[in-house]
Amino acid sequence: MGEMHPCRNQPFVEQAGSPGLFPSTTNPAFNLGPGTSHYLVIGDWGRTAATQSIGIDQCSVKDYGGNNDIQGRLQQAETAQLADQGVYPGDTTNRFQQDWAQIYQTPKTPNLQGLTWYNVFGNHDIVINGSVEAQIAYTSTNPKWQIPSNYFLVDLPTVTGGPKIRAFFVDANPFIASYNVTGQKYNKAYYQAHLNAAYIDGQISWLTNNLAASTADYNIVIGHYPLFGSASQYGFDQTGTATSPYPGNFNAWQKLLTTIYNNKATAYLNGHDHVMTAGNPNQPGVPIPYNGHTVFLTSGAGSWGEPNDSCGPANSYLYTNGGDGGFIIVSANATTFQSDFFVLGSLFSQCTITAFADKTKAPIISDNCSLGQPNACCNSPTDSCYR
C-alpha cells in the first residue's frame, strides 16, 4: 500500500469545512442580515464505493476541520456518478451504505451528517432497472434522504424569519434525445417507459402551473443536466438531432427553458458536467432571448473534477473553475439570493453570483468571477483533458 493521506477519509466539501468557509452568522461575507438561511449545493457526489467517493486524486494539501452553520441542504445530485451504475433495487444496505451513509452520515463528516439531502435523478440512476424505484422507496425509510417521486417540489427548510424558497426538482432524463439509440447504455427500461409526450409534457405543465402559482420569495428549478456554461449546453444546441439534443425529445429543452424564463425563476441548478460554472444565458446565438433575471449554476464536481467539462464554447460562461472539485453555498434572505463558488483547496469564494427576489432586477456578477478560466488542456488534443 502507498502512503495514507488524512483527506482520503473525507469528501471534498468536508475537507474544506473550516470556520473560514462555513462562517458564523456574523461573518459579513455571508451575513445578509436578519433571516439569512444557508444551503449547500453539491452535485455528482457519489462514486463506486467509499474509497472512490472522496476524490483521492484531488485531496487538499491540508485536511481542514471545523464546524459550519448551514441551516438546511439543497442537494441536486444523482447517485453513483461516474460509476456506470445506480442503486441496486432493494439494496439499501450496500450502495447506500458505501456511497452515502458511510461517508456523509457519519462522524467522519460532522459538518454534513445532520443535513437533509434533496436529490434529483440523473443518467447514472437509470442504468440499472429498479434503481429509481429503490431510491424513492428509501425516502420513507430515512428522512434525511429526500426524493419522494420522479419529479417533485418542496419548500426548503429556513431559519426563523427566513425567506420562502420553493424548489422544483425535474426529471430530465427522458429529455435527452441522444439516449434514444439502440445499444446506448442509458436506453434502459426507465428511459423507454418515460419517453413519451404524455410524461414529458405533463411534467412541463406541472412545472409551469406550479411556478405560476407560487408565492415563494424564490423559485428555483433543479435538474441534472446543464442548460448553459459547460461543455454540455442543452439550452443552446438547437439542431435537434439524436446526437445534438436541443430541442430534445418532444422539444423538451425548449419547453423547459421557456417556462423558466416566462415565470422568472430565480435560478436553475444542475450537475452532470463535472465542473463548477455560472452559465451565460445571453451568449451570442442563444435560441431563446434571456429574461434578464434567472441565473444558471452548475455544481457537478462533488466527487470528481473533469477538465474536459470546462471546455465549453467561447462566451458560454460567466465563471468556470476549470474542472476542479467544488461546491456552492447559497445564502438567502427576503431580498437577496447569493451563490458562492468554492474550489477544493481554497477557503475563499472564487465567484459570487447575486440574484434577487425582485423579478425586475438583473443578477450581479462579482469581479473575481472573470478570473475563472477553462482548463489549459482545452487548447490541446481532446484526450489530454481527461484525468
Automatic annotation (TrEMBL):
Keyword Transferase: no
Keyword Lipid metabolism: no
Region (Disordered): 1-27
Gene3D superfamilies named in the record: 3.60.21.10
Domain named Calcineurin-like phosphoesterase: residues: 39-276
Stored InterPro entries: Calcineurin-like_PHP, Metallo-depent_PP-like, Metallophosphoesterase_PAP
Pfam families named in the record: Metallophos (PF00149)
Keywords: Hydrolase, Signal
The protein's name in its UniProt record: Calcineurin-like phosphoesterase domain-containing protein
Organism for this UniProt entry: Coccomyxa subellipsoidea
